[in-house]
Amino acid sequence: MSKLDKGKGKSIFGKIIADAEGKRRRPLSVGTARASAHHGELLQGVFEDGEGRLPRGLVTLPLPSQESTVTFWPRKEGGIRTRPESRTKAARAAELTLGHLGLGGQGGDLTIESAILIGHGYGSSTADVTATIRAVAASAGTTLRQSTVARLAVAAEGASDAIAYQDQAILFAHREGRPIEHFGGEFPPLFVVGFRGAADQPVDTLGMRRARYDSEEIETFRALRGLAHRSVRLQDPMLLGRVATVSACISQRHLPRAHFDTVLALSQWFGACGVQVAHSGTLIGILLDANAPKAALRAGEIAKTATDTGFADVQMFSLNAEGAVLQ
Questions:
Q1: SS3 of 89, please?
Q2: pLDDT at 4
Q3: Which one, of 195, 209, 207, 221, lies nearest residue 310 by Cα?
Q4: On the CB side of 101, how many CA atoms lie within 13 Å of its CA?
Q5: Do the Cβ atoms of 59 and 47 come closer than 8 Å?
Q6: Of 142, 129, 121, which is closest to residue 95 (Cα–Cα)?
Q7: Rounded distance, CA 202 to CA 242, Å?
Q8: Which domains are present in the chain?
Q9: Distance CA 205, CA 216 (A)
């Protein structure tokens, strides 16, 4: 390389640095973003990672029909204020995101709009936190990787579902903010009929005692992990339903639900794929193969039966079901 070439290289490199620094110094604008809720989990337990450890992990069931919308209004004064006022996790998420972007000390106001029920397993706080992180990033004129959003969410909450990964099928370490395993595809096509007991009270997730799994349960989780991966690879809703049912039965030992046996019987009566639960909430869902004959009709019949039985917040939704509309 000639001296002229070397000088030209330095000049170009310097321009790149200057451009990058200029972007970091650009004034913040109003940023808005959304994040969806979820309907509990398809699988939750402890799973071996690549380092031989057993972190707690889960496979989230997305619920895209419900979401939190957050708007970040930057201001010169430090500190984060929220509307509603009590959203301390969202405020912490905004501070962490500003720090990650090199904007520590910047202040702002968060407006959080959400109808997601709190304390039942819909991931209301994670939706608020994830939408906040995205809104602050949008305010700075940038987007963040899903892995970064997930890591910041866990730092803000202490534990967080895999909402940042949207509808990707992953086994996620919800207390460490990282995937344990990518299942390499999307979920098989499902219809879900979800509900909760009418008398069920919100669960204080921060005050919950963590499940202490025995050696038999840990070995079961190892098998369920492999079967969940296989269900995604083969696009097999029935297999995924069996995984979810076994996981729900293990959860029942640690967080009993008054109507669990009733829901199991209802699932079997209608020939469903299985049952899933919110492992730290009150939600229960019945899973159906969306491609099976008359699947939408059966979903409607299950929803009516659940309503007639006295369950609350009965809803139907689909996951990766082409051309299917549930009403």
A1: helix
A2: 40
A3: 195
A4: 29
A5: no
A6: 129
A7: 27
A8: 31-180 (3.30.230.10), 187-319 (3.30.70.890)
A9: 25
Measured between alpha carbons, how far is residue 137 from residues 11, 68, 236 in Å?
30, 16, 37
pTM over the 0.85 mark: yes
Coil/strand/helix, residue 190: strand
**CB under 8 Å to 258, separation ≥6 — which residues?**
197, 199, 200
Q: Is 195 in contact with 314 (CB distance < 8 Å)?
A: yes
Q: Go through 251-288 and write b for each residue having 16 or more CB atoms within 10 A of its CB, e for each that does not.
A: bbeebebebbeebbebbeeeebbbbbbbbbbbbbbbbb
pLDDT per residue rounded down to tens, the chain (327 residues): 444 444 444 443 333 333 443 444 578 999 999 999 999 999 999 999 988 899 999 999 999 899 999 999 999 888 999 999 989 999 999 999 999 999 998 999 999 999 999 888 899 999 999 999 999 999 999 999 999 999 999 999 998 999 999 889 999 999 999 999 999 989 999 999 999 998 887 776 656 678 899 999 999 999 999 999 999 999 999 999 999 999 999 999 998 888 999 999 999 999 999 999 998 888 999 999 999 999 999 999 999 999 999 999 999 999 999 875 565
Question: Which DSSP letter does residue 234 get?
Answer: H
Residue bearing tokens 């082409």? 322
Which residue's structure tokens are 């070439």?
5
Q: Rounded distance, CA 36 to CA 131, Å? A: 8
DSSP string, 127-185: HHHHHHHHHHHHHTT----HHHHHHHHHHHHSS--GGGGTTEEEEEETTTTEEEEEEEE
- Total number of residues shown for the chain: 327
Rounded to whole angstroms, how far apart are CA atoms 258 and 287?
Answer: 20
φ, ψ (nearest 5 deg) of residue 167:
-100, 20
By the 10 Å C-beta count (0-12 exposed, 13-18 middle, 19+ buried), 210 is classed as exposed
Nearby residues of 229 by Cβ (< 8 Å), 6 or more positions away: 181, 183, 184
